[in-house]
Amino acid sequence: MPAFLTLTVIALLAVAYVKITHNWRVIKNPRWGILDLTAGDAAALIAADKAALQDVFPSPQESSGDVPKCDVLFLYAHLSEEGRIEDYARGFREIIRDSGAREVVVVSDRFQGRRPDKVPGWHRPLE
Length: 127
Description:
Elements: H1 3-22, E1 32-37, H2 43-53, E2 61-63, E3 72-77, H3 92-99, E4 103-107
Parallel strand pairs: 1-2, 1-3, 3-4
């Protein structure tokens, strides 16, 4: 797994952990969902993430179509230049709503090396 993605995932998990344990409520036994919208292109990365996180999140619910119900969602997708999910009818709002997730990690190689606030659409509120 590229170092950039590893560091990004670790940073996001640290933020999620702090937010979950020090914010409004603690999620006991968080349900972990994986939604792979890459048609298998992210299989190796998903396997690496599952291995790295097996002690934190046991047995994720995985899907390549239907949105899994979960507390923490890892969304692997190809994104357009505008920041939209390619070849999928739903957008981020619908996916997050349907999953019920409080924390979402979006994994894509489209914007590697760019700050999240410089990615088109990143700053828009989801609510």
